[in-house]
Every structure is written in C-alpha cells, then in structure tokens.
User: What shape does this take?
Amino acid sequence: MTKQISRAEQFAFYLLENQCTIRACAKHFGISKSTVHLDVSCKLPKVNPLLYQQVKTLLHKNLEQRHIRGGLATKIKYEQERENHRKQKVS
Assistant: This one.
C-alpha cells in the first residue's frame, strides 16, 4: 500500500528540487505565499520531520539572500527606467 503524499510534502519536494523561494513555489502551484509558508513551517514538521529539516535549511538560506535579490531587482528596475527615458529622448 502506498502512502499518499501531503500537500506540505509536495511543497517541500518542489522547494528542494528547484532550490526556489516560497514565492516561486506559490506561483507554481497557483496559491498564496501564506498557504505555502503555513504548510511548510507548521504542518510539515508534524508530517515529515526529516523533510522539514531540509526545507528549513533552504528557507534560512533564502532569508539570508533576500536583501541581495531585492537589491538586484531594484537595480534592474532603474536600469529599465533609464533605458525607457533614453528611448523617449531619441524619439
């Protein structure tokens, strides 16, 4: 008899396989970030404690890198704005 995989485990496997963020996982499954976070942080430890430890490590790494990703996103945003401004001047 095969054990049915829980939703929290599905999220955990996706996060680990893709080394992605909760936001990316939520987008992939078409649900809210809050739902993914709740399942992974509250329900997963009860369902699969070993898997939770692996996900916890990934989430901690993502937390440490969050400021870097935010800075890069801001940089790209302003580069695009500058490029659009230059195009408007040329036209």
Remarks:
- Residues 49-90 form the longest helix (42 residues).
- The two ends are 68 Å apart (CA to CA).
- Residues 59 and 65 are 10 Å apart (CA to CA).
- Helices lie at 7-18, 22-29, 33-47, 49-90.
